């Protein structure tokens, strides 16, 4: 066991995956010599050489498209997109090819590749560095979308993602990169994709969150506990495929549901979760399901971003309304 | 090198203002020493491959007009630019197509039935026999360029000697993906050969409105890789140039771009009307440069072929193509299960539920 923060857990996991499987190659902008702008790939080029960990020219479409070709020819590419707001030029590749190759070829060719990128904001960064894009990817059949919330989960989920035979978008909450450390086993272990986790048991309402917001949600749940409201909190972990059963089982028990996310509210991931709860647990509900989410605005620049991001206090307001409806 | 006196890249480089040609428009060869060292029988086989491509193309067009085939992208006039490079490849080399490379697909081992199945509207048209190293058609223009670089780079990383040959059209050279991929290929010295089929039109937009660049080959210059303009209707030149580019790539000298200067004698697809954007006289002029006509003239002159055998062969291939299409018509409807089961390796629970509910509906079990 070693104490790791989320970024060191990612680095450690990439190292482990590369040591276990020589087909794993890691590349992107500044990932080679520099070791990544967040240092996710530090030391990998030194250890595995420039054929397996390398810098690319600055072109996201090419980074993802090249990964597609490499995966088609027997490698397991792990591509890094430097910031989530820079992934848009690669959408054509992700949506038109990454998501479709297996279906297009009726299973003959598939793409065991991972596209890693930071997720969400809260690091006082420039414009385009704070985006939460899980809805875009979650909507596309053929993609898997993962958002870890802890160093331990980051390792198990990333190892699963690299071993998966389907393409995985791995969205790393940049705010958590260095937020806290946790004991992470040195040896390899996996956490199944598509499985949510009940991280806090409760009886009065079900709250689903993921990534950085999970931690604020847990703090909000503690506040409510002091008021005599018992919230069950679920870490979704995987956006696609969604773990419907874990959510519905909880809602059927509590009768109340809220989803908390960083992305803008309208047409966001919460809409899908509320629909899922309505379809699967409508008759159990004692209150309208709620979305506690970002405003429908462009994420403000750092001086104003605190107005956008939800903290435990604001989440608690929303949860209280559901609990007391 | 194709000949001790001719260094393609030195003599026909992107800025040379020259187009590499071995066989002229009448099928005459002025420098026989430049003709690649294949036997007469081998050239005849390549000619037959072009005739088969033409016959299969013509048949597809007829079938589309009868309402039996869906949208189809005709290929006529570009056979040499496809069969030449495909024949220059080794068996383990990869082909990354755009969408109008019928001659190359057939030559690289995709059965006509599979190709017809694609244009019939069935995904099994992108499921190729095991061991055929051809990627599926890439419809979004230019996007396949990155796949080619990735395939080639993977060969290099794995220490394998395979070379990747990628196709794109003249319109595709205007995309960012084209420029990005050339740049990546150059930086990584990827073993890849890019063939730009400049057929002079991107649907209705003529080549001169696509770019102010004098040639498309010169777009390679900025990426630091060699570019050549080759007569795309000259089977000898296309074979020779591609062979040389492949050999360069295989020995680690990196990528090459070949602009195959050709012409699309038919429409972009069966959905458009070329008379709206080009003159009949232009088409007629290009018909005289038809790659089949030229190669046939060469073979006739050498006494290797006859008009009678030629007509009979075309007829025979057309009949074969029709038989193949009848099989496609008989088997071409997809299984419902197949629409669902290849989205992921395993169907996620919600998708499985959608599938099962639909099956129940189809079986009349839902009121």
Describe the structure.
The complex is a heterodimer of chains A (325) and B (367). Helices cover 37% and strands 20% of the residues of chain A. Chain A is α/β, with parallel strands linked by helices and 325 residues long. Chain A folds into two domains: 183 residues, Rossmann fold, CATH 3.40.50; 128 residues, 3-Layer(aba) Sandwich (Rossmann fold), CATH 3.40.50. In chain A, the strands form three sheets. Chain A has a seven-stranded mixed β-sheet, with helices on both faces. In chain A, strands 9-11-10-13-14 form a five-stranded mixed β-sheet, with helices on both faces. In chain A, helix 1 runs parallel beside helix 7, helix 3 runs parallel beside helix 4 and helix 8 packs across helix 12. Chain A is globular. The model of chain A has no long low-confidence stretch (mean pLDDT 97). The relative contact order of chain B is 0.16. Chain B is 46% helix and 8% strand. Chain B is globular and about 80 Å long. The interface between A and B is large, with 48 and 44 residues.
Offer a quick outline of the entry.
The complex is a heterodimer of chains A (325) and B (367). By secondary structure, chain A is α/β, with parallel strands linked by helices.
The CATH architecture term of the largest domain in chain B is: 3-Layer(aba) Sandwich
Indicate the radius of gyration of chain A in whole angstroms.
19 Å
CATH architecture of the largest domain in chain A: 3-Layer(aba) Sandwich
> Structural class, from secondary structure content of chain A?
alpha/beta
Describe the strand arrangement of the main beta sheet of chain B, using strand numbers. Answer: 1-2-3-7-6
Using the coordinates shown, work out and report the CATH topology of the largest domain in chain A. Answer: Rossmann fold
Provide mean pLDDT of chain A, rounded: 97
Rg calc of chain B: 21 Å
Order of strands side by side in the largest beta sheet of chain A?
3-2-4-5-7-6-12
Question: Could you give me the name of the CATH homologous superfamily of the largest domain in chain A?
Answer: Thiamin diphosphate (ThDP)-binding fold, Pyr/PP domains
- Give unreliable regions of chain A as ranges: none
What gross morphology of chain A would you assign?
A: globular
**% residues in beta strands of chain B:** 5-15%
Major sheet size, sense and barrel closure of chain B: 5 strands, parallel
CATH topology assignment of the largest domain in chain B: Rossmann fold
Count of domains of chain B: 2
Assigned CATH superfamily of the largest domain in chain B: Thiamin diphosphate (ThDP)-binding fold, Pyr/PP domains
């Amino acid at each position: 066991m070693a104490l790791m923060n989320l970024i060191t857990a990612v680095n450690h996991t990439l190292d482990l995956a590369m040591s276990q499987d020589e087909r794993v190659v890691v590349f992107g902008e500044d990932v080679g010599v520099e070791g990544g702008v967040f240092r996710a790939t530090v030391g990998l080029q030194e250890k595995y050489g420039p054929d397996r960990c390398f810098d690319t020219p600055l072109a996201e479409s090419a980074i993802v498209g090249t990964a597609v070709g490499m995966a088609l020819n027997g490698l397991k590419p792990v591509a890094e997109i430097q910031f989530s707001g820079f992934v848009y030029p690669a959408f054509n590749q992700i949506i038109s090819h990454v998501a479709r190759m297996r279906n297009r070829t009726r299973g003959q060719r598939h793409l065991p590749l991972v596209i890693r990128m930071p997720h969400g904001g809260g690091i006082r960064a420039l414009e385009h560095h704070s985006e939460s894009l899980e809805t875009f990817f979650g909507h596309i059949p053929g993609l898997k979308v993962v958002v870890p919330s802890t160093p331990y989960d980051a390792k198990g989920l990333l190892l699963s993602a690299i071993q998966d035979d389907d393409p995985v978008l791995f969205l790393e909450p940049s705010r958590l990169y260095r937020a806290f450390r946790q004991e992470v086993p040195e040896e390899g272990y996996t956490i199944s994709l598509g499985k949510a986790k009940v991280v806090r048991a409760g009886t009065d309402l079900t709250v689903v969150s993921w990534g950085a917001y999970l931690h604020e949600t847990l703090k909000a749940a503690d506040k409510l506990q002091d008021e005599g409201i018992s919230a069950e909190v679920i870490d979704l972990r995987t956006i696609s495929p969604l773990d419907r059963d874990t959510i519905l089982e909880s809602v059927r028990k509590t009768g109340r549901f809220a989803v908390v996310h960083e992305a803008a509210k309208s047409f966001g991931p919460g809409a899908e979760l509320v629909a899922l709860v309505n379809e699967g647990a409508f008759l159990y509900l004692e209150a309208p399901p709620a979305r506690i989410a970002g405003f429908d605005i462009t994420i403000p620049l750092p001086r104003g971003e605190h107005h956008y991001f939800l903290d435990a206090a604001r989440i608690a307001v929303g949860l209280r309304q559901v609990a007391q409806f | 090198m194709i000949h001790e006196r001719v260094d393609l890249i030195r003599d026909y480089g992107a800025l040379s203002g020259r187009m590499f040609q071995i066989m002229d428009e009448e099928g005459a060869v002025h420098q026989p020493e430049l003709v690649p060292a294949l036997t007469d029988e081998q050239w005849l086989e390549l000619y037959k491959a072009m005739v088969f491509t033409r016959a299969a193309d013509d048949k597809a067009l007829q079938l589309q007009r009868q309402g039996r085939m869906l949208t189809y992208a005709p290929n006529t006039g570009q056979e040499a630019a496809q069969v030449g490079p495909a024949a220059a490849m080794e068996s383990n080399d990869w082909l990354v197509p755009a969408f109008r490379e019928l001659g190359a697909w057939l030559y690289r081992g995709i059965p006509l039935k599979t190709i017809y199945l694609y244009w019939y509207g069935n995904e099994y048209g992108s499921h190729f026999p095991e061991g055929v190293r051809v990627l599926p058609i890439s419809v979004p223009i230019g996007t396949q360029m990155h796949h080619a670089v990735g395939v080639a780079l993977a060969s290099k990383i794995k220490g394998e000697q395979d070379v990747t040959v990628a196709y794109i059209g003249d319109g595709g050279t205007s995309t960012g993906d084209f420029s990005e991929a050339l740049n990546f290929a150059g930086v990584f010295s990827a073993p890849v050969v890019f063939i730009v089929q400049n057929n002079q039109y991107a649907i209705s937009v003529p080549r001169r409105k696509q770019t102010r660049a004098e040639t498309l080959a010169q777009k390679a210059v900025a990426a630091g890789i060699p570019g050549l303009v080759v007569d795309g209707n000259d089977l000898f030149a296309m074979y020779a140039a591609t062979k040389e580019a492949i050999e360069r790539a295989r020995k680690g000298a990196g990528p090459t771009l070949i602009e195959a200067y050709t012409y699309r004698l038919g429409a972009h697809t069966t959905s458009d009307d070329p008379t709206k954007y080009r003159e009949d006289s232009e088409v007629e002029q290009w018909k005289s440069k038809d790659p089949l006509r030229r190669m046939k003239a060469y073979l006739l002159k050498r006494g290797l072929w006859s008009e009678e055998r030629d007509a009979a062969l075309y007829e025979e291939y057309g009949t074969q193509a029709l038989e193949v299409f009848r099989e496609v018509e008989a088997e071409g409807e997809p299984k419902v299960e197949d629409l669902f089961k290849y989205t992921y390796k395993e169907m996620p629970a919600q998708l499985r539920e959608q599938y099962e509910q639909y099956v129940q509906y189809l079986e009349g079990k839902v009121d």
